[in-house]
Amino acid sequence: xxxxxxxxxxNHNVSSTHPLIELAWLLGGLxxxxxxxxxxxxxxxxxxxxxxxxSLEKRLGDIGLGSMPASEENGxxxxxxEELLVCLxxxxxxxxxxxxxxxxxxxxxxxxxxxxxxxxxxxxxxxEVESENELAMVLAHELGHFAxxxxxxxxxxxxGVVFISTVLFGQDSSxxxxxxxxxxxxxxxxxxxxxxxxxxxxxxxxxxxMVMWGARRISLFVSSVSRARAGSLTxxxxxxxxxxxxxxxxxxxxxxxxxxxxxxxxxxxxxxxRRLKRWWAAELSDYKKSRFQMTADxxxxxxxxxxxxxxxxR
Amino acid sequence: MDFILQNLxxxxxxxxxxxxxxxxxxxxxxxxxxxxxxxxxLVHLPVVTAAGWGDQxxxxxxxxxxxxxxxSIDYFKRLLAILRNIFGxxxxxxxxxVDRARREAVLRMKEQAQKKGADIVIxxxxxxxMISGRANRxxxxxxIEVIAYGTALKQxxx
Lengths: 314, 158
Fold this sequence. Notes:
A: mainly alpha, B: alpha+beta, 3-stranded antiparallel beta sheet
């Protein structure tokens, strides 16, 4: 046998697929599978939510509260919440809860509902609110989440996410931690529909608080639309209130006015028609002067304001 | 700034993947260039797995030659392998790693044989093992070691 020195023409041991193409296929498949399982687990969580007793919810809430940094119960805030609860009808599901309001030292402009009747108000939000109506609106909004048990739905999906990532990447994998953390931080927020439903609940239970607060903040929004800062109360308002208050209230007023009911004791001031007209004219003038480039949704919001105020003034 | 701080883990992860891809691709291309050049230079030195060789000339000198190499995988390829573990199939990202390690080990063995003046390396064998602090415990591949060894023969002239 004669040895002939030559090298192979091609390397058949290494695939020629480009790694980025492979990554795209694998990620696409993963997103599809995770999305599918996430949807199914979310539906299961939604089905199970109505069956979870408040006592179990309270236990879950205690765990969640323990992870909130520097939170302590605030008697004043709890009393304000109780004033709102007095106005609720006797058959309201919220009467099953014993509510506690905690104050967190974080500077974020936010408030969260934890399982078991715990509302955590961040100090940043308290700094931004200018009246008790605003605070009442925030609490009413959070009570709306309790009425719809949104926090449990979020928790159920969150557990689903942890389950998926643990199955895929192992229990103590850093990839698993990363995926779970990323998806959980996304999942810890409520959907647009849930936020709107919470506002709608507040609107139905405490229409006077919602109307006055909504009108006040709409004015603030218009005047500060060109200088809105991320994380400010204006942004909080835009995401949580404008969508529902503007549509909900205007339709309600157009349909025949506010429901008759006892005004909330929290209302310390009211705007007369005359003051409201003057205030609106001033805000509109300011707005026209601003150089703000309106995005599509803001544009829609601004065009919606005259109809809203026309219905209010009627 | 807030966005960066809130998603620091994700950003670090994406950064590591990007660095892994760029640095890993560069290192791999450079290594393959080096392998091809040295293989061409050493192509005249036969290496066989057989225990004997057909040449009936008397063996003047025989000795052990070996070459070993440790090659690490980059972050990007590790991500590909993790994703591939979910769906199954060929772990293409490891193929080039193992291929480079094998060829490099054989080349180093041949270089040692050449220094000894060998005419041929017979009975060549290869071993592969994983090297990583947690490789065996967590079934993770950090680096691989390939060792190639054989018997270098120098035939007596005439």
